[in-house]
Automatic annotation (TrEMBL):
Record key words, sorted: DNA-binding, Transcription, Transcription regulation
GO molecular function, one term: DNA-binding transcription factor activity
GO biological process: DNA-templated transcription
Lineage: Bacteria, Pseudomonadati, Pseudomonadota, Gammaproteobacteria, Vibrionales
Name of the protein this chain belongs to: LysR family transcriptional regulator
Amino acid sequence: MDFSNRLLLLLEVTELGSFTNVAEQKNLDRSVISKQISRLEEELGVRLLNRTTRSLSLTAAGNEMVSQAKLLRDLLNNTHRLAQNYHSEPRGILKITSSMMFGRQYVQDAISVFQKQYPDVKCELRLEDRVVDIVQEGFDIGFRIGRPKNSSLISRKIARSRLLIVASPDFIQQHGKIETIEKLESLPATIYAAPGLFIDKFTYLDENKVEQQFHLNVAYKVNDVEMVVKSAVAGNTLAVVTAQMIENEIIEGKLIPIMTHLNLEDFGTFYAVYPHRDAPIKTKLFIDVLKSIIGEDSPVWEKNIPNFEVMYSSKK
């Protein structure tokens, strides 16, 4: 490992918080990381980290070196990115992050198509439902609901994520027609819930175009979106789901959209996000491939819901 790599390693240690975390990410022994940082301190002739058995903290010199390391990382990334734009064909590694369900359903298909077209590009895909720091964790592109809070990131719209309310035929037969907010709020419902996220209320516009909310009567909460749909199919609860979560349940009559007259607000919008406006050609081409799979006007998943274009005041 040369001097510049040791400097970048110091940056990783400070960003990930410990030698152990860096070692796990790089699949190395913790002692290797410690030795490289010690070697860097020897080369510079200054102490960079204050070490205790429980924590690490930067010295004043360490803070200065980390600032230089950030500049070095940006310089190297920009140099690689600019060079890639001069390739007649994309090549190198494309690191992608996505939410679990969207990644399984569409990003994986896009990777298969993309690599057939551009075999010199190696792809890495990480699926997880947390919001990933794309710059810090070294991703070229990410797919998520909502615009990024980091204003330095570039975003490109992929598709709307529309909501619908569903229940099984047995549920409707048991409880009768569901035509009012009051009745909707009184019936048992399944919701998606995860640490820091509890989705039990939704926004709609009333007849005067004023925003209102309804609250679901939570009978079952689960941290897997597929289980939300399966629970509704089982007939014990109703559910509010995104169109992307529906496969053949409505076409096969296992679920029925209800309260379709409601003017439901979208759950959000899918965006591709990436660090630089002048992104490498491989990033731009991958987004094009994904868009061709999902569709330009309305996303392909909405075809699983007959007449969805006239439900829930879809034109927005």
